[in-house]
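Students often ask why we bother encoding 3D structure as a string. The short answer is that it lets us treat folding as translation between two languages. Here is a chain of 301 residues written in the first language.
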Amino acid sequence: MIKKKVFLCLAILMVFFIAGCGKKENINNTNNNVNNNEITQDDEQPNHLAINIDENILSLEWMGAIQTDTTGMFGPSLNMDISDITFKANKIGSNDTSNVIKNGDQIILPEGTALITVKDGMLTGLVTQAGMYTFKGKSNQLAFYINLKYIPNNKFGMPYEIFWNDYYYGTLLQANYYGTYTIQIIDPLLIIKNLITIDYFTESSKNFNMNDEDSDLANMLFNQVVSANAGILDKYSNEYSISGLNIVNDSQIFAAMLNDSLEESNSWNSVYGIKISDAHIDEFNLNESYQAFIEAYEKEN
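And here it is in the second language, the structure alphabet:
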């Protein structure tokens, strides 16, 4: 009986030893792959890091972290402005300024950026995990970055004066104002599929910037921001029981109200994947007749 128990214990220990060796081998294999990720795409049935357009299925597989030292690994300098939302991806170690990628090409995906691949106007892949990626596909595709960092300096202005019922002064006031706001792309898949048009995802396309006055898309978004401002002063004044004039110094609340208004009117958060993270009124012009009323009111009170 004792010999049987000893034999059983030895057998159990042997099983644990073999399992531990296998686990260690798997860990070593993972560590060997940690510095290089692969983007694998099949033209007939996209799967790895690819989107099945028909079924709206996003499939991601991350295989490793970005190398700690990437000095000199980028291609030509990125031609982008801090306010650009889309810009062409750069291949590693290449003087080729084109964003056409072929089998074996490598791309660095920096922090705060998404990488997408496009073929024949169709979105084929999306990845947001920073790292160094190797493209493996049967045909050439186009690669673009989507800026996921805070994107500042987006301008807005009221081309007309708006009225609001001012709680503090107990009367209607009239003014227009101008300012800037900062956005962040909170869902790159939504902005690609629902907002940015295909002409920004071609080999010769320019970067998409919300301040581009020649862009129909940028002008549409500008007009949406203008319209979203229409009821903010009235809501601010009556919700906080103060004068709407104070909003000039209340940027945090103004940004939150502008974000909510854009979501209610145009679904910026839920459909476009865009969030207003900051907003400032840089110039506020009260109608002259109302300015005289306020001066008289302040003297009497």
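Translate back mentally: The chain has three domains: 1-32, 37-147, 151-300. Keep this in mind for the problem set.
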